[in-house]
Amino acid sequence: MGLVVHSSRLTLKALSLDLFPHLRQANYFPAHLDAHLQGLRMNSACYGWGPWIIYLRDSDEVIGDIGFKGKPDNWHTVEVGYGIRKPYRLQGYATEALEAILNYCFQLTEVTRVTAECRHDNLGSIRVLENNHLFPETEHLQMVNWQLTKNQYFSKRNALAASSDTGS
Q: PANTHER family in the record, alphabetically (predicted)?
């Protein structure tokens, strides 16, 4: 079955050779997926540290991908990236997928920091990152670098749970 994460509307599956036929059938195969599959053939330890395919939970329709740009570094940091097919944008799917992958990352791996980057004028991606409580860290050549630590993630999550418990 492989690595699978569920959210209320989505299923995320770590890219593997087993998914290849379904991706071809769905006509979804950006170049970075092929690059990761080639890497998996050489080093199976990279499984789960590349793209994860995003499916609509009710229909198994491929709507995009999210994932890591490699294994954690020496500081237990990974970079995330994501892309949603045009017909599915502006429906909160990227926010939901990022929330699910952050939860997986911080609860089930030894990752202590997640980073992301996007252009300073990519308002959609900025909104996704802000909705998941990542913070802008630096900006260089029109690219903003974002980050979220494991401690920040759990602090924010606990604060949100406490406020919903009190009805605030």
A: ACETYLTRANSFERASE, GNAT FAMILY, PUTATIVE (AFU_ORTHOLOGUE AFUA_3G00765)-RELATED-RELATED
